[in-house]
Amino acid sequence: MTALNKKLLRDLWRMRGQLITVALVVACGIATYVTMRGSYESIAKAQREYYAKYRFADVFASLKRAPNSLEVSIRAIPGVSSVQTRIVVEVTLDVPGLQEPALGRILSIPERGSPALNDLCLRRGRSIEPGRRDEVLVSEAFANANHLDAGATIGAVINGRWEPLRIVGIALSPEYVYEIRGAEVFPDNRRFGVFWMSREALAPAFNMEGGFNDLSVSLSPGGSEAEVISRLDNLLEPYGGLGAYGRADQVSNRFLSDEIVQDRITGIFIPAIFLAVAAFLIHVVLSRLVHTQRTAIGLLKAFGFSDMSVGLHYLGFALAAVVLGALLGVPLGIWLGRGLSRVYQDFFRFPELRFAPTLNMIVSAVAISGGAACFGALSALRSVAALPPAEAMRPEAPARFRPGFAERLGFQRFVSLSARMILRNIERRPWKAMLSILGLAFAGAILIVGFYFYDAIEYLVRVEFQRAAREDVGITFNEPQESSARYSVEKLPGVLRSEPFRVVAARLRFEHRSHRVGIQGLSEERDLRRIVDQNLRVIDLPPEGIVLSTSLAQILGVSPGDTLTVEVLEGQRPVRPVVVTGTVEDLIGTSAYMDIHALNRLMREGETISGAFLEVDSLVAARLYSFLKRTPAVSGVNVREAMLQSFRDTVAQSLGISTGALIAFACVIAFGIVYNGALIALSERAHELASLRVLGFTRTEIGWMLLGEQAILAGVSIPLGFLLGYGICALLVYAMQSELYRMPLIVTTRTYAFACITVTLASVISGLLIAQKLRKLDLVAVLKARE
Amino acid sequence: MPDTVFHVRKVSKVYRMGEVEVHALRNVDLELFPGEFVVLLGPSGSGKSTLLNILGGLDVPTSGEVFYLDHNLTAAGPAELTRYRREHVGFVFQFYNLIPSLTAYENTALVTEIAENPLDPRECLRLVGLEERLNHFPAQMSGGEQQRVAIARAIAKRPEVLLCDEPTGALDYPTGKLVLEVLERVNRELGTITVIITHNVVIAEMADRVIRISSGEIIDIHKNEKKTAPSEMTW
Fold first, then answer.
1. Which of A27, A335, A433, B118 lies at a C-alpha separation of 20 to 30 Å from B179?
2. CA angle A495-A500-A505, nearest 5°?
3. What pTM was computed for the model?
4. A81, A216 contact by CB (below 8 A)
5. Which residues of B touch A424 (CB under 8 A)?
C-alpha cells in the first residue's frame, strides 16, 4: 500500500462519523433506487410475461345475449386474431364465516381444454372435470382472504335457486391481476371473488344455452384496436352490446399499468433527492477537509506529487462513501424491495412476482451515486488542483466578515453578540446555508409526503363513506324492478327505511368524444346517498339534466349548459340529448348523476329501480343478511361498514412499509445535514470556541454559539419544508390523478406537526452528539497554537 | 508587606506523554501581590506556560496547592474553574484569538456580557488607543491592532489578574513596544496584577519583579529597583 493510501485510510478512520453519515444518505439513495426501480422492472416484467403466457386479450365486450353463431362474424373482423366467447354472471354468495353476503362473478370456461384467451393459471387443486356441474375454480385472492381451499363448498344463488358450489382448484387470471368489483378503487377480497365454471354447467342456469354475453378478442399483428372496437360495437348493438373497450380501459390492467407508471416516476424522483443531498454533504465535508489539510497538500505537491494524484487522493473520501453506501444500500434496497413485493402480491396477483433486481440495475445505481459523489467533490478537487505549493504552506488569511444584512439596516441593537456571530457565519457562506436549508427542507417534505397519504385516505373516507354514502347496506337487483319493489324491501327484517336508485349503462357523446359510464339515478330524498364534492359540499341534483364528475366533463370537453348525447346501452337503447346542469369535483371514478325520475323518463320506462340504499337496525342486521343471501332477486349486497373496514385494512397494509421507510430516510437526511454542518462548524471554530472557554464562557454558552447556526438553519428549513412538502403533494396529486380516482390535496396540521417534530428531534440528537465533542476542546493548546 | 493575592505552595506538575513522564514543574513556591507587574522569563519547555495555565485555572497541579485569595484552585472542579476565569482572570494570547466574525467593539463587548461589573468596551478600546477602529473586523486590522483589541477584551471585565502568554511573540519591534506600553498603562491605571511570559530578557526591565524559570524550577526572583518604560527599551 502506498503512503498516500495509508493516509487516506487513516483520514477516513478519523472522519468516520462524517463518512458514516454521508454513506448513510448515499445508502438511502441507492436503496430507494434499487427498491423502486427494481419493483418497477419486476412488475413490468411480470406483467409482460403473464399477459403473453396466458394470452391476455386485447379487446373486451359485454352484451345482453348473442347466439354462438355470431362468433363467425366476429372472427371475420379484419385485425382479429382469436375470439373467446363466454358467459359472465354475478351471483350472491354465502361464504362460510362471513355474516354478510358476498358477490361472486362467475365466468364460463370450456369444459375441455383451456380458453383461447385469458387462460387460467392453476395454483392449487385441479381443473374442473367434464360433466361435473357443481365444480368451480376460485380466484386465489378470494380463496386466501376467506381461507378456502380445494374441497370447500360455498353457497350461491344460481337461477333463483340455492346451489352449493364445490371448489376444486384455486386459480389466477391475467384479467384479474387486480381483483375489484365495479367502480371501486381498493380490493375487498373477502366480499368479492371470481369463479370459473364449465360453460355447459353455467349456460342452462342462466338461459344462455347456445349463446354468450361476454367476449374477448386478441388482435393480429398490425390490427387496429379502434377499428376492431368500432366494428364490434356495430355487430353487437342488436344484441345489447355495452360497448367494446381495449386493454387501456380494462379495470385490472388499468390499475396495474397506472401503478407501474407511478413506480417509474417515484423511482427517479425519490432517489434523486437523496443523491442530491449526498452530493451536497460530500461537497461540504470535502471542502473542509481540503481546507484543513492545505499544508499537507502543499507538501505533497512540493514533493512532486501531481495535481491528479493528490486530487484522486481526496476523491477517495467521496468514493469511500459511495462504496460504503453501496454495501449498505444494495442489500437494504433488495430487502425493502422484497417487502414491497409481498405487499404487491396482496394487491396484484401474478403467477410469479419475484423481486429480482438485475445486475445491470444495481451497477447503474452504484454508478449514478458515484457520479453524484464526484459532482459533489468537484469544487473541492478543483481547489486542490489550483493550490500552488508555496501558498498552501503559508497560513491562510483570517476569514473576512462583514456586518449582516439586518445590521446594515440598523437592527444590530436588537441582536445579542452571540446571535451576531451566528448570523454573520451564515451570511459569510450564503450558498452553503441555503443548500443546508434546502436539504433539511427536503427531509421535512419527505416526511410530509409520507404522512400525506394517510391524510388523503382519511379524507377520502370522510367524503365517500361518511358524507356521500350514509346507507348501512346497498342492494342491487339482478333485473330492474318496478318502484313498488322498494316497499317489499322495506318489509325485510331490520330495514328502517330505503332510498331507491337506478343505474343505466350508457355512452355519453359530445362532439367527437365519448365515454362509457353507468348513469346513477338518485331519488329525490337523497339522504342515505348524496352527491358530495371534495370540499365536502353537498351538490344539489336538479329535476332535469345530468351532473358530471369534473374529470368526466374534462374527458368529454363539456361544461354546464352544453347538451350532450346519451346513448343508452340497455333496454330500448334510446339515444337522447341531455343538458349538463352541473359538475362535481369528486374523488373517485367518473360519475354521471341524474334525478331518478328524469332517468326513468329518458329510458321511456315507468318508475323503475335497480336497487336501494337501506338504513338497517344493527341489532337485526344478521337476520337481514342471511335473508338476502338466499334472495334470488338480489344480485349484490354492499355493507358500508365492512367495506370501510376492508378499505382501512388494505390501506394500512400498503402504506405501512413505505411510510416507515420514508420516515427513517428523512431522519437520515436531517441527521446527516445537521451532524456534518455542526461538525464542520466545530472544526472551523474550535480555536475560537476554546478561546472563549479560556475567557470564562461556560460549555453551554459556547455550545449555543456553535449550534445556534444549525438551529437557525433547521428553524428556517421547517416552514420551507412545509411549502415544499405541500408542493410535492400537489405534484403527486396532479401526476396520480386518473379516471379511477383523484387524491384530495389535504395535508393536516397533525402531519405538519409530525414532520416538524421529527426534523427537530433528528437535529437535536445530532447537535447533542456534537456538543459532546466540546468537552474535549483543548484549552491549553489554544494559548500557543496559531489557527 | 501587602496582602498576597496568589499563593503557590510546593506545586509540581507531571505530564504523561505516552510512556514518558515529563516534570513540567517541580516544587514551585510563589506569591503574587496586588497591582504588581511580573515577568516570567525562561527558555522553551522551562515550565513557565504550565505555571501560567495553573494560575489561570486552565490546568491543575499534580501536587501542591494554589490559592487565589481564599479560593483553593487545586480543589476546584471544572465548573468552578470556569467561574474563576470568568470573574477574575483576563487572558492575552500570543496569536490574539479574536472572534473573526465580531468587530473590535463587539469582541470587547462580548466579555462584558458575562461579567458582573465590566468596564465600558469603548473605554477599554480608548485605553489601548483604538477608539478609531471600533467597527473594524479582525481581518481588517494589523497584528498589533488585533493584539490591542485582545488586551481591551481581557481587561473589559475588570479582572484582578491579567495573564499574557508571549503577547509580543508574533509582532514586530515597534508594534510589540506599543503593546507593552498598553499593558504597562493598564497595570498602572487599573491596578491589575499583570503576569507576562516571555523569553525576551529586555521586557523584564519593565517589571516590578522578574521570575526566572528553568527545567520546572524557579531559579531566581529579582526585584527591579527602577522600572524602565517600554518606550525606552530596545531589543
1. B118
2. 135
3. 0.79
4. no
5. 101-102
Q: Which three cell numbers stand for residue B112?
A: 462584558
A240-286: pLDDT as tens digits = 898 899 999 898 998 899 888 888 887 888 888 888 888 988 998 89
ipTM: 0.85
Which residue from B minimizes the CA distance to A685? B99
Strand pairing partners for A567? A507, A575
Three cell numbers at B196? 507576562
User: Residue A734 corresponds to which cell in the numbers above?
Assistant: 396532479
Report the CATH number of the A495-616 domain: 2.40.40
Q: Which of A413, A537, A415 is nearest to A468 (CA)?
A: A537
Residue in chain A nearest B170 by alpha carbon: A786
The answer to whether A111 and A196 have CB atoms below 8 angstroms apart is no
- Widest CA span in chain A: 104
List, for residues A418-434, the tens digit of each pLDDT value. 888 888 888 888 888 89
Residue with cell 376444486: A168
Does B85 contact chain A (CB < 8 Å)?
yes
Contact A360, A41 (CB under 8 A): no
Helix, strand or coil, per DSSP, at residue A91: strand
Taking residue A151's Cβ as centre, other Cβ atoms within 10 Å add up to 9
CA nearest neighbour of A148 among A134, A169, A164: A169
State which amino acid sits at residue A516: R
Domain boundaries, chain B: 6-94+158-232
Residue A542 in grid coordinates:
336538479
CATH architecture designation of domain B6-94+158-232: 3-Layer(aba) Sandwich (3.40)
Q: Are A169 and A125 in contact (CB under 8 A)?
A: yes
Quick one: average pLDDT of B168-184? Answer: 87
Do the Cβ atoms of A104 and A91 come closer than 8 Å?
yes
The residue with greater pLDDT, A409 or A315, is A315
Residues of B in contact with A698 (CB under 8 A): 79, 82, 86
